[in-house]
Request: fold
Amino acid sequence: MVESAPAVELKGIWKRFPGVIANSDININVASGTVHAIVGENGAGKSTLMKILYGMQKADEGTITINGTELVFNSPADAIEAGIGMVHQHFMLADNFTVLENIVLGSEPKSGARLDFEKARKQISDIAAENGLLVNPDVLVSELGVGDRQRIEILKVLYRGAKILILDEPTAVLVPHEVDELFNTLRDLKREGLTVIFISHKLDEVLSIADEITVIRQGTTVGSVNPHTESVSARDLAEMMVGNELPTPLAVGDTIRDEVILEVKDLTVLAAGGKAIVDGVSFEIRAGEILGIAGVEGNGQAEILDALMGIESSTGVVTFKNEDVSHKSTRHRRELGIGFIPEDRQRQALMLEAPLWENRMLGHQTMAPNSKGFLLNPRGAKADTKRIVEEYDVRTPSIDVLASALSGGNQQKLIVGREMSGDPKLLIAAHPTRGVDVGAQAAIWDHIRNARQAGLAVLLVSADLDELIGLSDTIKVLLRGKFVADADPATVTPQELGTAMTGAGKAA
Amino acid sequence: MNLRRLGTSLIAPAIGIFISIAVTAVILKFIGASVTTVFSSMWTYGTSPHAMSLTLNLATTYFLSALAVAVGFKMNLFNIGVNGQYVLGALAAAVVGSNLHMVGFIAIPISILAAMIVGAAWAGIAAWLKVSRGVSEVISTIMLNFIAIGIISYIIVRTGIGTETSLNVRGTKLIPESGMLHGTAFLDPGTKVYGFFFVSIFIAIGYWFLLNRTRFGFDLRATGKSATAARTSGVESKRMAIVTMLLSGAIAGLVGLPYLLGETGSYNLNFPTDWGFTGIAIALLGRNNPLGIALGALLWAFLDISSGQLILEGVPREITTIMQGLIVIVVVMSYEIVRRNQVKSEQKNVAKALAKQEVAA
Reply:
């Protein structure tokens, strides 16, 4: 490798948020012309770090050095100026614009007052050819799939002259062959002398593409490895990510009873265009059973959960405790005893600008202790909020503070505590411990396991495969809206499960 | 903590009033008027028992109008059609009331009910368009205002409902004395404070109770705070939009009644038709809170009434319109600033309190 200053050097980065230290003493060296992966659990502080590097947030302490020059970024514009480009996990494209228009949007080539599309078209096709990013510049973005959209995002930052690319969880939304294409693109970019920073928590992918891997745990860098020179396995990385403890939620004993709590037949959810996002899914969950759904994000798991709660319209038959609830309202389903921990807690599970005790009522506003008949019972809700704060270790000075004042992990603990209240018969949970620290994670697992012991049925969706394997009694693998494989949590490894999720092979 | 919240919610209006007085002073100076004379004569007249009675009467009207708007605002539903709803409501009450010859405690509630039903029905058209056809309620309610005024002109000019009243203006028959709510003259012996002033106090309490102590109120507030979270919690957004719009229309139907039942006794073509827009401004001022709205309505009415004095000083009375506009703009801006600071400072306080706990542990 050429001897030169590292493309990116982060030194002693600290970032504190109310109630949580997101980054503490982060040190990373990214060599020029390499693919550098940054791995860590959800909530380990990867996103914050990247926001700092991209100028979206300012570090409290520490320095950023780009190609040997120490710089201060006050906004993304400064970072772009320094040659840094960010490809966000969620694409930011205008659907009703063409590819070309999307790429130039915000930095349009002008000749006089006129938009010079011909010049832009030439420039873009040059960049695209150099990097093997094949897209037709004149189609509407709305007609393109996820892989193409991602290529447009990459072209967008290259068009703006980026030499250092940050890709935030780029594979989360991709199917396997798209992942392969992306990796080919990254190799091309590297050959062109560009530097790629690749954020991920999928260790197999990281091992196959990265020249160097930095591991972040609880906000700090715990080490770097070079997979070309050192022999390192996904397991080694996982251990670095979670520390020595490796808290695996071991399933205890067989608690499955005969009573079927939830029976789902031919559940289908159609997207706006008429394509099936959930395609004729059937399963049942018994009392005391935890059914895990494994799948790459965006393969229909969110839609299954929303359909089961009656939030998303669907066809098929959903039977809860021998009652057909297919056409029942969300409120009715909740009153029957279904708890719901949605995927996006801030949008779906909280009123951020309301006090904790009002958030305690949300979703349970028709039930004791929050209301009696048509009247609310603030006193009852407050008392029960105090109980949840105690039992679930929600770190807050009072139950009168606004939900927005809590850290993400504490918000999640409040939500889990709320949804486990009132003796539910079924818990539908998406990523119940996402963003929660390790200790609280174990506590939430205990709560769920204890409830299962008492007969709770659980439908669990989690991106954390260790959590999924450790908690579930049965695992089903979801791919493009269909169950494609079953896995036995007693024998399956995260690696096997990960392979099955991408449709590449069959799980044990 | 709650005392502090109350304190911070009073900061914004205080800033608004201060800045608007300051700017108005500059304008007065600019047009060559004596600042102190103008303000002191407004104050002297505005605080006289006669003017205060008039202020209470006008404030009652504004209060109801703002309440109608506020109930929609609480769930991000914008009822801009209070004007249309209240003129139709007032007409309905006038027609029903003038044909009822019964004792007051039966006739008056029936008139009130008629106004509420018609107001709600008119708002219901916008609600139905919204949930069934996705028409923005902002557009439909504005358009319905024009239609309502047109319908009323037609009814009064072209149908038997309208007759020639005194003062040479067409209107409905007079409501019999027993069906009126003239009120009592408790401040100034010559000026009655409308009976609806007292009715409004009960309506304010009812509004507060409905929003803060009932499940319906919780669903409504939850929808306003986060539509997605409310949906996930089991609130049916379409049903909620319809019910809230009907409720807003029903309250709007009352807006013309203080004046109708306290003063004219007849809906005629001179009946004011723009109290609904004032309601929007006051709902913003009062942050959809009944107490805040009451204070805002009093302030607004005070400025309106005391501005009558400006002509005597040789100053155009439109100066108060400028004041009112400034107050709203400044207050809305400062609310947002105060709110952001509040969220931030609360996050900081929580972090601080937790850090202390950890040290203690």
Q: What stands out?
A: Residues 104 and 160 of chain A are 9 Å apart (CA to CA). Chain A is about 30% helix and 25% strand. Chain A has two domains: 8-242, 260-345+424-501.
